[in-house]
Design brief:
The chain is mainly alpha-helical. The protein has helices at residues 2-15, 18-22, 24-29, 37-62, 67-110, 114-128, 133-141, 144-161, 166-174, 183-207, 212-239, 241-244, 250-258, 260-287, 297-311, 316-345. This is Membrane protein.
Length: 347
């Protein structure tokens, strides 16, 4: 059970990046659909639990360090090659989004130049990737219990102190930018793009399990924890629509609205989540081409760290709304392949 819980927390840490912890993803994929976002949360939880279980078990079965073998196993060489290309590109895009998220956090919370924030996260990520894979997985899982506790506090406060009626909350929520045309597609897209970007590292995490059962249970636990976090963030945003409208980091704004100390704690959680996702995505991207044991691995990490830093100034909100949505549609192919594999090869 302990090993499954570690796998589940690492799974959550991989998904819960800057977009999630800031509230920006929840706003665009869930909260912007008003009360229907609750149904979207339930749908997303089921999707994450089912897919997390299957990906972790596939990772255990294949014992791979890269997503290439996984997509070939799921969809064959022809379609697998296409998916491989898109996943690889998207891994780098998510890494860049995490660097951009740090830049936004430093500007909104600390009033620092965004360049300082982005450079800080790039250096931290590059240094972490010099560690071994088990240490990297432990780093990814580390901050999740802390974030759960903090989000519970923020959600309860938001509900108890809201100044808006349900109708007013709904009107304001539906005026926000949405990444999908309706709540069903929003939930499915959110699951899809996270699976597409996370499948690489999730298989690596699954390969470290002691058994197939442990791997599968870890995936299920990860999905359920994600569902709880999505629900808590969604409730907090919906209750405080008048406070967060137009903010890049809406959850951080609510946290500071409670008390400056809570705001600082949330900012720390945000940076920890950005960090965990940046580490997981960049590692997955690089090991697609180069083994960590290769002598050019470290120089390659440094090179792509610099490249990601330069690309991060596109803007955090723009990256979340555009790149993520596009990859969500592409990720449906992976979900279909996983589901088909589950139906035909589970025995």
């Amino acid at each position: 059970m302990k090993n499954s819980f570690r796998i589940g927390l690492a799974f959550v840490g991989l998904v819960v990046g800057g977009g999630f912890a800031s509230g920006q993803e929840m706003m665009q994929f869930f909260t912007s659909f008003g009360v229907y976002s609750i149904f979207g949360t339930i749908l997303a939880t089921i999707g994450f639990a089912f897919l997390g279980m299957n990906i972790a078990q596939i990772g255990y079965r294949l014992n791979t360090s890269s997503h290439k073998e996984v997509v070939y196993f799921l969809s064959g060489r022809t379609l697998g090659s296409i998916l491989d290309i898109f996943i690889t590109i998207f891994l780098f895009c998510v890494t860049v989004a995490m660097f951009a998220g740090t830049a936004s956090a430093f500007r909104q919370v600390l009033g620092f130049d965004p360049v300082i924030g982005s450079a800080f996260m790039v250096i931290l990520t590059v240094l972490t990737l010099m560690l071994n894979i088990k240490s990297i997985i432990n780093v990814i899982a580390l901050a999740i219990p802390y974030l759960l506790g903090l989000m519970l506090i923020i959600s309860v406060f938001s509900i108890l102190t809201t100044d808006l009626s349900l109708a007013e909350q709904t009107v304001l929520a539906e005026q926000q930018r949405s990444a999908a045309p309706n709540w069903i597609m929003g939930a499915l897209l959110y699951v899809s793009y996270n699976i597409a970007s996370g499948v690489a590292m999730m298989t690596v995490i699954g390969s470290t399990a002691s058994s197939k059962r442990v791997a599968g249970l870890g995936g299920i636990l990860g999905g359920l924890i994600l569902g709880v976090l999505i629900l808590l963030v969604n409730i907090a945003l919906f209750a405080k629509m008048d406070v967060i409208t137009g903010k890049d980091m809406p959850i951080v704004e609510i946290a500071f609205n409670i008390h400056p100390i809570i705001g600082v704690l949330m900012a720390i959680a945000l940076l920890a989540m950005i960090y965990s996702t940046a580490v997981g995505m960049m590692y997955s991207f690089i090991v697609r081409f180069i083994s960590p044991k290769d002598k050019v691995y470290r120089p390659t990490v440094v090179f792509f760290g610099i490249l990601g830093f330069l690309a991060s100034f596109v803007g955090f909100t723009t990256l979340v709304g555009s790149v993520y949505s596009l990859m969500g549609y592409l990720g449906f192919a992976i979900i279909a392949a996983i589901t088909l594999t589950w139906l035909t090869k589970r025995n």
